[in-house]
Amino acid sequence: MAAASENDDTSLNNQLKPDSEPTSVNLSPPPPAEEKPLSKNAQKKQLKQQRYEAKKAEKKAQEKEHKRKEGERKHKEWEETLANATEEERLKLIESRRSLRKERMEKRSEEKEKKMERLTKAKEIGQNIVIDVDFPHLMSESEISSLVQQIMYCYAVNGRSSSPCHLWLTGVQGEMSTQLDKLPGFEKWFIEKESRCYIEAMADRKENLVYLTADSETILEDLDPKDIYIIGGLVDRNRFKGITMNKAQEQGIKTAKLPIGEYMKMSSSQVLTVNQVLEILVKFLETRDWKTSFFTVIPQRKRTGVDPVVDCSKSERLSEEHQEEDDHLERKKVCVEAPLESGS
């Protein structure tokens, strides 16, 4: 009986045992795909950019050190002047310095009031220009930070202009919004800030939307007060070619490109920064002259040095001050879909 019982148990176990062992499932995430190695040309461009950034950082450090030493020198001279002066002369020097400081403060206050008057007028009747920042998903945190710096420069340039535009920021969300909020005084900026995309925020004026992109076949001859011009803000190191053109086509809005090729020949580096594009437009609002706008803003190193023949009626002699601004206007390197005549 014991043997029979044991056989029964064995038979039951064999019935309950599956035909094959279950296959183990690997739930761990797949290994990351290997990054495609850069081409020799891309490596050269990357190395050139790294050298440029290093040189710029070194220059900035030198300027900071020079400014510090200059401040110490002036302070020392002031202290020596006071030490060698009589009591009466010392009081007069101090009073004179206070008067100069007060005069500077009053001048700054007056300039600020005039600036607010210009921006208020621009909000009512000025040219509408949008910076589309609806690309945070395509950028790293450092790239977003770089774009935010460009936006800061855009606001400063527009505020100084005698004919400022009505400036908009659309698509301000997530990390982009967080970075912008870190800018000193951003909450007081005289600018339109929209969390929605321009296509939603300006749905009632869709027929007036014009996206500026290098891939457009339409050349922008003039700025129409009724139109709203859009600049694509994307720090992508030229990774996403044609992205703004595709976006505009999907949304069914007009596109255009700046007539740069009619006035100058660009070098191999055809990428403009966000603030350069904005400044070109603002300069055109002041002068109604494309050539003056381009030669004032676009750095010499981005030109070949041999410019095409242009209509003499369009040309205007530029001041040395404009030429000296080349390096100043470059500032941080931020790649965008710049509205050049030829695609980047």
Automatic annotation (TrEMBL):
Entry keyword set: Methyltransferase, S-adenosyl-L-methionine, Transferase
Sequence ranges of Basic and acidic residues compositional bias: 50-79
Known catalytic reactions: guanosine(9) in tRNA + S-adenosyl-L-methionine = N(1)-methylguanosine(9) in tRNA + S-adenosyl-L-homocysteine + H(+)
Biased composition (Polar residues): 10-27
Region of interest (Disordered), ranges: 1-80, 314-344
Keyword Nucleus assigned: no
Known EC number: 2.1.1.221
Domain SAM-dependent MTase TRM10-type: 115-305
Name of the featured protein: tRNA (guanine(9)-N(1))-methyltransferase
Organism: Brassica rapa subsp. trilocularis
Recorded name of the encoding gene: A09p027250.1_BraROA
